[in-house]
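Attaching the record inline, Q. Sequence:
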Amino acid sequence: MSQQQFIHAKCPECGSQMLYQRGGKQTLQCRNCNYSRELGRNTDQIKDRKMTDGIDLKEFMRGMGTKLNESSCKRCKSVISTINPEKIEICPFCLGTEFDSSNKNESVILPREILPFSVPKEVARKKLKSYFRRGEYRIMYPNDMVSTVTNPDNIRGVYVPFFLFDVFTQTTWKGEGSFKYGGQGKALWDHFSGFFENFYENVEVPATNGLNMEYLGNIMPFYMRDTVHYDYHYLKEWATEIYLGDEKSRFEEADAMIDGQLAGEINRRIKANEQKNLKQATEKQNITFRHALVPVWVSIYTYQGKNFQFLVNGQTGRVTGEKPISFNKIYTAIGLIVLLVLIIVFSFS
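Structure, as predicted:
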């Protein structure tokens, strides 16, 4: 009892849902305008095609649209730029104070979109204060941590580079799945195969070198429906990070993200106790991408020689960060507990 499973695709003629028609020729047929097309796809017909196949980025416009004052932080290796002629004195990502001159912005693909800051600094500051009040062990925080992190002078706004991908995928898969019937019954293996199409829109691939990627993931997503066309005048009040590395690596990251989501789609369709010999092939088509800048508030707290980043999404106000615990307070608390126990023991002896 092999199964074929399909996602309902949208009709290219009228946009309505297309349904899989069983029997005879395998087709997707629109239930509104009767448009139809044959499927008949299998793993021999769909090639595993990566987003980097045939990529050519030579014709894209380069630069940031204007001359920027740019510095490369010697500590965290991030590249920070501003329109202002004044030199950058403190790195917003690690508080480093030593920089090398750089001109990376001349070679990057020109940003197409920018997501302007919509969360003011004072709101970001209040969000950070609220974040610390929710801490489970807030009594154990270092004494100056909250005041340092929420000090307006220590909260810095930075535009961070992202790549956004839109891609249409066609995936075929086949494999075997096992089912157990009657609780303790013998597992029965069956062959499965399927075909489905997906459209992925605004797949976000961060291109930052200065931000902690785990923390950045905690404040995502950014809602790209609010982006505006890039204009370098938006950079007048803010520092901007310049992405490093070649653009091809961003395509490879997007490839891996999409492949992971497709594997999850297949697993949900099999619905077996176990599976084996699973093979999938995906052809990625109609690929578009753009370089975008997104807003992040950053505050750094240094404790025992280590920097702790606290981030606020400059669009949604979502907050994240690692809260260090004071070992001195822990030792003091343990000492007080031991002293209290001794007092109780001696009082009853």
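The helical segments are 121-133, 145-149, 213-219, 247-270, 327-348. Residues 1-8, 40-44 have pLDDT under 50 and may be disordered.

More tomorrow.
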